[in-house]
Amino acid sequence: MRRWPIDAFLDALDRECALRPQMHEYAEHSAGGGAGARAVAQVERDVVGGGRAYGVGVHASIVRASLLAVVSTVNRAFPRPGGLARVLHAARSESPVLSPARVSYQEKLAGLDQESCRAMAQEIRFGELTREGSLEHQAVSYNELTPKRVVDVDGREIPHRPERIHVRSIDLFRLLAPYVGVRFIDQARTVVPLALYLALFQLLLLHQAVSEATLITAGFVAVILGLMLFMEGLKLGLMPFSEVIGHSLPKKLTLPFVLAIAFLLGIGVTFAEPAIGALRVVGASVDVEKAPYLYAMLNDWSGVLVLVIGMGVGLAAVMGTLRFLEGWSLKPMIYLTLVPTLGLTVFVMLDPQMSQILGLAWDSGAVTTGPVTVPLVLSLGIGIASSASKGASSLSGFGIVALASLFPIIAVLLLGILISQSSTPEEIITGARSAEAALVGATWYTRTPVAEIIDGLRAIVPLVAFLFLILIFILREKLQDARIVAYGLVLTVLGLIVFNLGLSYGLAELGAQAGGLVPAAFSRVAAVNNSPLYVYSLGITVALVFALVLGFGATLAEPALNALGFTVENLTNGAFKKRTLLYTVAAGVGVGMALGVLKIIFEIPTAYLILPGYGVAAVLTALSSEEFVNVAWDSAGVTTGPITVPLVLAMGLGFGNAVGAVDGFGILSMASIGPIVSVLATGLWVQVAARRRARREEVESEEAVAAA
Questions:
Q1: How far apart are the first and last CA of the chain?
Q2: I need a labelling partner for 333 at 20 to 30 A (CA). Which of 396, 487, 541, 572 fits?
Q3: What pTM, to 2 d.p., does this model score?
């Protein structure tokens, strides 16, 4: 086994506890045979002050066994109660509240050693241990593993050609079933609970059956299959491109060219986002007479809308990359981005016709931070920073998600101002009527499923072509495992096409249906007999609880949030537990969605909720430490996945149409500000609690010393 895990652990002990352990001898053996074999590691080390200490570690993993052996020697060198755990506690009491994660890792090893020692109370003689390992040792000749040498009549060796492996159908099923099953279940965990919640809520509380249930079920199955294929293709096909480019680009091009490519990549990945298609789907639900500028952006200018959103993401990629390279703090970047964003919001709010686009603009920030944009842009930025030897910070992965959710808002608001200067509401309404008349003779490529196939190809193929041109003609490098990458790209395109079909017939349909029926709890809805179903106050409460539970449950089901929870727990050395973060973010999203529904019911202007919300977030950002600022602002983007975004958009528009609101946008934007405020507030509470605990432990230590 390589010695680096042991060397790293010894170095950590020296840095944290000043133990200066010096390993004198190391040996490893195998105890037992077959699948039940266990690794045994023995360590002999010098002890400060003279003498030697010996330790043994037994585990199925040789790495873990070797680390247990090191911990065993330290415990023998410190025979007092607690051993290494007591030494680590003393070292930790002198460290700051947010110390590096390695102390937490050593504590786990210390606890692991104590647990293992309790389980291994039996003493073993070293001679017996060595003899057991040698008896189970079996030598195999290399010649027995290689094919026999064959020569022709002239004595020349004939190259060996292995026989083609013939796989039976049952063997193929056994190979693929676990591979496909795990990935299918990963996506089903997110989709199925949401679908069941919406269907049961509609059936039990609204007393309405799901219409076209068979078609919607097929649509949800298509969503699961599409996401499964898309995510697997993303990992095998698109990610290798970005990783190679991110590591090689800074070595061969100057910084301005690198940033230009990062900007173009941000545009390309936006078109490839699965949730971006939801904007086109919901565009048909907007009433042109009530919101002409909103209708124009989602229909006449839909391609330009996605383009400007992509430009916002590209600018975020550039700023995020510069932050990686220069080590900038996220706080000033947030303030510099918020000032123009809120300023444009106030400007647009003052125009009654233009104010209708505010909900779409702020919701667009949530659409961009999906499974394509974040990993591709992040891997490019971190690769650039690593090449410049500036990517070692534990916070280097944060920031792009926050910026990618703010810059598109500015871009959409500027586009809305441009449209208002070039077209009047009357011209937009007239154009919409003409387009509806021409829609009767729509061409074949605008109908399902051809439209979804074209959208899938249009989203992925240009992005792949762009990355391929950079790799071949600019970097002049070859792509490793080209066949696997090609297989991944095919899966990506196929997955996006299937997802788009499921989006049209499953997610969007059920979301619009549920959103259109929930108002029956407190108001008259033509499709629901005996509506309103409850008294007004109770009906409003039912609608708010519906949104709160939907946001809370959908957030807990997001896989990316669990990964963020582990990162946060390590960054804060356990002060901010993973479970605390999960429930804090989920509560913020749930409350935010409830506020968004409240905004639609009472037709509260979007700016009246956005401006105070981000004002509070700005104040909390100023009071919080850099770690919690990074986590809080990124948590808003983590919670908006490819399932949540289309579902909430469709539900909001269905809700708005049912209550006669101008538009149904704004729920996603409130679901984004909610977790920012909740995480920052919880972070302040965690910091205060940690300081009080540190002061209390310091007082107790001083009292113990005085008593001694």
A1: 47
A2: 572
A3: 0.71
